Amino acid sequence: MATMSKPSSKTAESFGVATRLVHAGRDPSAQHGFVNTPIYRGSTVLYPTYDDIVHRRGRYNYGTSGTPTMDALTDAWTALAGAAGTVATPSGLCALSVALMASVSAGDHLLVADSAYRPTRIFCDGLLARFGVETTYYDPLVGAGIAGLMRDNTKAVLVEAPGSQSFEMQDVPAIAEAVHARGGTVIMDNTWATPLLFPPHERGVDIAVEAGTKYLSGGSDLLLGLTSANATHFPAVRRTFDQIAPCAGPEDMFLALRGLRTMSLRLREHGRAGLEMARWLQARPEVLRVLHPGLPEDPGHAIWTRDFSGASGLFGVILKPVSETALAAMLDGLELFGMGFSWGGFESLVIPFDCKPYRTATQWAPGGPALRFHIGLEDVADLKADLDAGFSRLRAAG
Ligand SMILES: *Cc1c(COP(=O)(O)O)cnc(C)c1O
């Protein structure tokens, strides 16, 4: 496929990832020297002659099939993810649905990690079931044992590492090897790590999904999804995208490109501060356990050390049993931690969560109330003071 950005030596593999992030998907010489690719809005693309329109000549045909803004983003993501191609969709959930619809058909069987993002389950149990695809959930710690769960009609296996809310690590290379040996497709929700910390296709993933809403945005100011795939699977992904036309919004794509330039810097700080906060929380008397694969005590630490080059800023904390009133007193008074869904932005967040109502292949019995933290870019000392005051309220109310 022709691309907007001319192949540049600055995006070559020989450069470090931060350098490549600065230059990927950008060609100032095609933009009158301006640094960034602008927002192209549009449905109609005009053809200069009868002959051109009859033969659909030209890179762009119609707004749904792509724009220079979309190419700038998807080209950059393809290079970053080490993929053969990428499509950009209006949300992360939409990107997951494209990955799944590209991989399964009526009569097929699908295996999904029990720790997958909950809306992924709702999509599988709802729309996919209605269209004749059967989904079975599996223990995320299954590893190469996934082979034993595959049926003759198992077409795809979805992995997510670490798991949503509960942060179990999955042995993605072992699962990929076993699934490929039986001809299946490996789909991964790689939102937590991004390709910066876990290069999905290099580790055996066929189709990788990123909620660009999170770290690519970095600002809680847009919704975006990216579905990247290797050479074998990209044609099916692109075909599915073309049949549905779930095009990401032009302004959101522009903002995502802006986020891309600073993503490695931000992730490094989210990871550093996140681990510092995780250690601090682990030492608190109110805390039973911290769910963070970067901690040596975490059951997923060995896999994380082997396969990941860092952590992002999202992790879980299990508190020692305490009344709901005490928990509410802690959370309601927080000044810096906001309570709300999504994550990946510059601000710190906390949510209470409970996986019990919807897990089917594993037991969720953590032994106390569960909180999920996203550590933003504030000063860590201020975040500790905010939580310290929160723990005082918790103790006073308990
Ligand atoms: C947020 C999230 C998504 C979905 O992204 P949206 O853009 O909010 O639809 C998918 N997977 C994971 C792991 C997420 O955290």
Task: Give a verbal description of the structure.
This protein is of the alpha/beta class and 398 residues long. The protein folds into two domains: 247 residues, Type I PLP-dependent aspartate aminotransferase-like (Major domain) (Aspartate Aminotransferase, domain 2, 3-Layer(aba) Sandwich); 134 residues, Aspartate Aminotransferase, domain 1, CATH 3.90.1150. The protein is 36% helix and 15% strand. A seven-stranded mixed β-sheet has the order 1-7-6-5-4-2-3, with helices on both faces. Helix 5 links the parallel strand 2 and strand 3. The longest helix is centred in the last third of the chain and has 33 residues. 47% of the residues are buried. The N terminus is likely disordered. The chain binds pyridoxal-5'-phosphate (PLP).
